Amino acid sequence: MYHWARVAVQHDTRSRAKYAALRSRGHSHGRALRSVADRLLNVACAMLKSGTPFNPSLAALKSTC
Question: What is the pLDDT of residues 29-62, one digit of tens each?
Fold first, then answer.
């Protein structure tokens, strides 16, 4: 999970923004990565429950609504 979150912070804008926000609030690097990992797990679980593949453009639309 650590590596998944670390790579997500490097390549995914939403993960990077969540990480940066947590760090700016004083969270440690490890705590911020754990929060990013929690978000990634929630997304993966939702995809498994609904049986749908990840669609980044759909995720972007939901965050603007």
Answer: 999 999 999 999 998 999 999 998 887 776 655 6
The two tokens of residue 46 are 């939702």
Instruction: Please give the full DSSP string across 14-57, using - where no structure is assigned.
Output: HHHHHHHHHHHTT--HHHHHHHHHHHHHHHHHHHHHHT----HH
Indicate the angle between helix axes 29-50 and 13-24, nearest 10 degrees: 140
| Tokens (6 digits) for 63 | 């965050």
Rounded to whole angstroms, the Cα distance separating 7 from 52 reads: 23
Indicate the pTM of the whole model: 0.80
> In this predicted structure, what is the pLDDT of residue 6?
96
* Residue 32 CB burial class (10 angstroms; 0-12, 13-18, ≥19): buried
